[in-house]
Amino acid sequence: MALEMVPDWMAELEEEDLTFIKRFLLASGSLKEVAGAYGVTYPTVRLRLDRLIQKIRMGEEQGADPYVSLIKRLAVNDKLDLDTAKLLIHEYRRTGKERT
To answer: When you count CB atoms within 10 A of the terminal residue's CB, does the N or C end of the chain come out lower?
Structure first.
């Protein structure tokens, strides 16, 4: 596939996310098999898949506010806790509405 044909949501993913997707596909979608390959438990792989799904959904949001998208990405990647992310987004939207 030509680089210019890579979907935006895929281009936003980190290398380890793409490796996970490849392993998942080669395991025919078996989370149990992927867990074995990584040497972790099924719930750990399930959590990683859920976070990857969130990343992809965020990458597909059309016209999303770049700041809000950044905060969501940080929360999904465990760089920011969920409560803090919600607070930042709430305050950002509240102050943004006051300006308009």
So the answer is: C
pLDDT (tens digit per residue) in 79-95: 888 788 889 988 888 88
Tell me whether residue 78 is in a domain: yes
pTM: 0.63
- Is residue 83 one of the residues assigned to a domain? yes
Residues 25 and 69 in one domain: no
Indicate if 95 and 71 belong to the same structural domain: yes
Token representation of residue 48: 């990683």
pLDDT, averaged across the chain? 83
